[in-house]
Design brief:
This protein is mainly α and 1071 residues long. It is 60% helix and 4% strand. The protein is built from 36 helices and 8 strands. The chain has an 8-stranded mixed sheet with strand order 4-3-5-1-6-7-2-8, with helices on both faces. Strand 3 (134-139), helix 6 (144-149) and strand 4 (156-160) form a beta-alpha-beta unit. Helix 21 runs parallel beside helix 23 (606-623), helix 25 runs antiparallel to helix 26 (724-752) and helix 34 (959-991) packs antiparallel against helix 35 (999-1029). The longest helix is centred in the last third of the chain and has 33 residues, at 864-896. The protein starts with a helix and ends in a 25-residue tail after the last helix.
């Protein structure tokens, strides 16, 4: 019952931690309640035509053919003569819905939409279509409905083809784009005879949207370098040229139509998208027509060093790059509709051909629109935060907001348009930063709660393992097991080197290319059959198979052969554009269903069941493979068989049990409880190997994140019509298959090594939680582009981030173990000193999360008083630790030199009184020093609340004191270490031939030597550097922070007590 309770509590804890991810990272950035803002001047265009070539890469459009001509001659002529061009930079996830939301609504996809497959609107949002008078759309049923659904009123009209037309096995996917152009032509033709439709078209603020999916579909089916993909670009170019001519004729060449041609995302060379590769994030942008700047020729080098200008032969024409969300603002400005209220786009002024007044007014409107979002976000956050804890964004307080807007309006009235534009750009920059500030306002507190929860839970599980599942302190051969543990770790190094082989040999990059699907599937099938045949042959000698088992294995092997051949048939059929054969589809779905049932029909003997699972899962994996990844499950299975065999040999070598053939063990039989053993250090290694293999299985051919950018060719044996949920589910199963193989192998090892599955489960749980804790600690607030730039700017922050993360993690575990060990022994004076040391570490570790957050976010969001407190704690921790180290060392040295009479009068009560006095002195002096010394000579640092831990100049006030302190610490540490080393030398020479009555003294003095060495390693380097730093504060402040952080590794000193009852050298094997 206790185990059930523990399991339920653990499940609840991890469910809470899991959902905390959504509360921290997957909350909607959108706010509501803002009023749309409009530019008061007359817009240059009455209507806008938006072309979106879905999946079109920038280089595919701009690169010339070998003969110097363009595959898109019309758009090339626009770039050369009558339009402005550039590269639109998209953001992850590079999917169709997020891309269109950024283009038309002006904000980067609400991450909560991932729960609805990027197809539905989890939160309603504004868009250019919604603000327009009329919008007509033609294209995919996956994209258009979401903008019609989110529009107010009934003015967004959609025309879509059936969803079944989005077939990757189509004979000609470009017909999707031909359908769109045909429909638009028919639309204008009918408008000539339909008076109401014509009247609507002649109104202003209209938008026509053409979604061209054929390019994306051909890219997925045939790759972006294929002739089908490139021919589709030419077809779209021709269609754009014809449509522009029709539009101009319809409106009588009135010069009031603006055109925008762009793409929602790019595509990798292997036909996928969703990630952040440049081929996916760089998309073309060509704008021309009413209100747009014509081609601007340049002779000077342009501010782009990516080499594309030369590759595309466009270095003579000005290139204007934008962020994808900026396009929505540009379109709204051209036709005079309000900028979408949720837009974070910044108006690209270089695209506009208008007066300076229009540019200034438009940018001012843009700034006010973003500022409105900032105000609403601030109000929302203020309402949900206690007033005395709320910290407003310092660079855009209410007074500064009023100052910005008032000054910008005055400059426009005074016709100082350039100054007004500059001021508005500054206001937009601050408002965007403020939006991020308030959106991530609670992230630190939520993250710290998760971290502390993980720390507490993990510490609790560690204590349960030590208390109920192991007796590590009492094991007679601890030293031998420690050596064995580290010796076996060399196997991990070998596995790590092997894991790098695909990268070093270049196979990893080639594995994405699927031109050898048939060969790799055939090789994987043969390897699987060879594995099964070898086992069936060898089983004849050891444990003959029953007839039913042999028949099942033969059937499964034949099934694997068929599944290795199905991808070849499917691939050939698709190449010939004959579609997906129905028989192949039936076989594939039947295989998927049977893979979950057939293993349950096999024998209950471990190896037979394991082989049946392997054959069933491999058959499914072959159908989901696109290249050399098909070899992964067979090779992984071979590795698992080897691992199982090695573990059995290891148990035999340790004399734990005799080896029993796996083919003779029936896991369904009752377990003999008397044979279940306790945990050993070797089991930690087994659990670590399990986690290592799980990670290998996870990243062997992909991971869950790669589902965003998966290759649709992986599911062509099952379906070819686009369906994100079914395709995503199949890809998820493909990712899980290697998991299952590793987990079944680990369960086999658990049975073979006669260890309780509960024990191994607890160890794996601890390792997994530690990994999650490390990931949560390090990855907080590192997902914005601004933070990435800051990381590059300050190279020391990365080192500090890693150091403090490791200290927090390992220090917490160290303290937990020490508290468990010390709880029954707090009577001696030395134990009281150690408890003081533990408390010192504990107080310091409470402040470490604040440092980690600062080095992640590169800004301090708390009060300067708290900054001073956190900054002072690292020094307090260092000096308090040094004092208690000295006390412990002196007490043990006096005891060794028979000076007990000097300390016999120093009882436990005296030690407690001295401890109390020391802490009272610290609590009085540290706040005084912090309040009256820190930040007094920082030149305004007191008022800059976004920076912290930069109080170096303050030590100039006490330069002499710092020299003396550092010198004393260096001398005392060296002297005590030398004395302690001499004591250890004497004991070693006396007791090296066997155990004596001095064994306990030997162990105590060994730990004292460890404390002394910790002082030497952690404190002396910093104080030696500090002697130099005092005279070079301005240039060495960041380096000083790194040296200072190294002193915190003394938090690991509690690990010296792990072997407190074992005499490591003089008495191996005895206690």
């Amino acid at each position: 019952m206790r185990m059930i309770t523990f399991f339920l509590v653990g499940l609840t804890v991890h469910v809470v931690f899991f959902f905390s991810i959504f509360d921290i990272y997957f909350t909607s950035p959108l706010v509501h309640g803002m009023t749309p803002k409009n530019t008061p001047l007359t817009p240059p265009a009455s209507r806008l035509v938006l072309f979106v070539g879905d999946g079109l890469r920038a280089d595919s459009l701009f690169t010339l053919l070998q003969n110097g001509s363009s595959r898109a001659p019309y758009l090339r002529s626009v770039i050369e003569d009558k339009g402005t061009w550039g590269v639109s930079h998209t953001r992850v996830p590079t999917e169709s819905r997020p891309g269109h939301v950024a283009l038309i609504a002006g904000f980067y996809e609400d991450v909560s939409a991932v729960a609805k497959g990027w197809k539905e609107n989890p939160v309603e949002f504004d868009s250019v279509f919604n603000e327009s008078r009329h919008t007509w759309c033609w294209g995919s049923p996956d994209i258009l409905p979401m903008f019609a659904k989110g529009a107010s009123g009934d003015h967004v009209y959609t025309h879509t083809y059936p969803a079944e037309e989005e077939d990757f096995a189509s004979t000609d996917a470009s017909r999707l784009d031909s359908w769109v152009f045909t429909q638009v032509k028919s639309f204008f033709q009918s408008a000539k005879s339909n008076s109401s439709l014509r009247a609507s078209l002649l109104e202003d603020k209209n938008v026509l949207f053409l979604h061209l999916l054929g390019i994306d579909t051909n890219g997925h089916a045939h790759r972006p370098m294929s002739q089908e993909y490139l021919d589709n670009i030419a077809l779209v170019d021709t269609g754009v040229a014809e449509l522009v001519s029709i539009v101009e004729d319809f409106f009588g060449h009135d010069g009031r139509t603006a055109y925008v041609f762009t793409s929602d995302h790019g595509m990798t060379n292997w036909g996928s998208h969703g990630a952040g590769h440049p081929s996916e994030t760089l998309t073309p942008l060509v704008v021309w027509g009413a209100g747009v700047q014509k081609a601007h020729r340049v002779t000077e080098p342009q501010p782009y060093d990516d080499g594309f200008l030369q590759d595309w032969k466009l270095e003579h024409l000005r290139r204007v790059d934008v962020n994808q969300a900026d396009i929505a603002t540009l379109m709204a400005s051209l036709i005079g509709v309000p900028i979408p209220v949720n837009s974070v786009g910044v108006l690209p002024l270089l695209y506009l051909n208008n007066t300076d007044q229009f540019k200034a007014e438009s940018l001012y409107t843009n700034a006010i629109q973003i500022l409105e979002q900032f105000k609403m976000k601030m109000i929302q956050k203020k309402e949900t935060t206690l007033s005395f804890l709320f910290t407003p964004y310092p660079l855009l307080t209410e007074s500064k907001q009023a100052e910005f807007t008032h000054k910008a309006r005055i400059l426009i009235q005074l016709e100082k348009y350039e100054d007004a534009i500059s001021l508005c750009q500054s206001l937009i920059s601050h408002a965007l930063e403020g939006l991020v500030y308030y959106h991530t306002y609670d992230r630190f507190f939520l993250g710290c709660s998760v971290v502390l929860g993980f720390v507490g839970w993990t510490s609790y599980v560690v204590l349960i393992i030590l208390k109920t599942h192991a007796s590590l302190n009492r094991h007679p051969s601890l030293l031998k097991q420690v050596v064995s543990f580290f010796h076996r770790a060399m196997l991990t190094v070998g596995l790590a080197v092997l894991s790098l082989w695909p990268f070093l040999s270049g196979i990893f990059g080639k594995a994405k290319v699927t031109y050898d699907v048939c060969l790799h599937s055939a090789c994987a099938g043969l390897l699987t059959l060879f594995t099964s045949a070898c086992y069936m042959w060898s089983s004849r000698q050891r444990a003959p198979l029953h007839l039913s088992d042999r028949q099942q294995f033969v059937t499964q092997m034949l099934h694997v052969t068929v599944c290795a051949y199905v991808p070849y048939l499917t691939h050939s059929s698709l190449q010939q554009k004959q579609g997906l054969p129905l028989l192949n589809q039936i076989i594939s779905w039947a295989t998927l269903a049977s893979s979950m049932v057939v293993p349950l029909l096999s024998s209950t003997r471990i190896f037979h069941r394991l082989l049946s699972i392997f054959l069933s899962l491999t058959a499914t994996y072959l159908l989901l493979s696109t290249g050399s990844e098909a070899l992964f499950p067979p090779v992984l299975s071979w590795l698992m068989f080897v691992w199982i065999n090695i573990e059995q040999e290891a148990m035999l070598a340790q004399g734990v049990s005799g080896r029993q053939e796996l083919s003779t063990i029936d896991f369904s039989a009752n377990i003999d409880i008397t044979k279940i053993r306790q945990l050993k250090l070797d089991d930690i290694r087994r659990s670590y190997f399990f986690v290592f293999f799980i990670i290998t299985a996870f990243f062997g051919t992909g991971n869950i994140a790669s589902i965003n950018s998966f290759d649709p060719a992986s599911v062509y044996c099952f379906l070819t019509v686009f369906n994100p949920f079914i395709m995503g589910g199949l890809m998820m199963w493909k990712v899980i298959i290697p998991f299952i193989i590793v987990m079944c192998s680990f369960e086999t090892i658990q049975v073979a090594t006669q260890l309780s599955s509960r024990s191994l489960f607890l160890i794996v749980l601890v390792i997994s939680d530690l990994m999650a804790l490390m990931n949560t600690t390090i990855s907080q607030s590192m997902q914005t582009t601004a933070m990435t730039h800051q990381l590059v700017k300050n190279k020391y922050h990365s080192a500090l981030l890693v150091i403090y993360s490791v200290v927090l993690l390992t220090g917490t575990i160290s303290l937990s173990l020490m508290i468990y060990i010390m709880k029954s022994n707090i009577k001696s004076v030395t134990s009281i000193a150690v408890l003081n040391l533990i408390f010192t570490h504990f107080i310091f570790l409470l402040t470490v999360p604040f440092r980690i957050y600062y080095y992640c976010a590169h800004k301090w969001i708390f009060s300067m008083g708290w900054c001073k407190t956190v900054s002072s704690m690292i020094h307090t921790h260092m000096y308090m630790s040094f004092i208690f180290y000295v006390i412990i060392l002196i007490m043990r040295l006096m005891a060794f030199y028979n000076k007990d009479q000097w300390i016999s009068c120093f009882q436990r009560i005296h030690a407690l009184l001295v401890s109390a006095v020391v802490w009272i002195v610290v609590l009085v002096t540290v706040p005084c020093i912090t309040a009256f010394s820190y930040g007094k000579r920082q030149g305004g640092h007191e008022n800059n609340s976004t920076h912290c831990f930069q109080f170096g100049k303050d030590i100039e006030i006490a330069r002499v004191f710092n020299y003396i302190t550092s010198t004393v610490i260096i001398v005392v540490a060296i002297v005590l270490t030398a004395l302690q080393a001499n004591v250890f030398r004497i004991l070693y020479r006396k007791d090296r031939h066997g155990c004596t009555s001095q064994q306990q003294d030997f162990g105590a003095q060994f730990k004292s030597l460890c404390f002394a060495l910790i002082m030497v390693i952690c404190f002396i380097p910093y104080h030696m550097f500090r002697l130099y730093y005092i005279d070079n504060i301005d240039s060495m402040q960041e380096i000083n922070e790194v040296f200072l952080s190294m002193t915190t590794f003394n938090c690991l000193d509690m690990l010296t007590f792990m072997g407190r009852r074992t005499c490591y050298r003089c008495c191996p094997g005895k206690i």
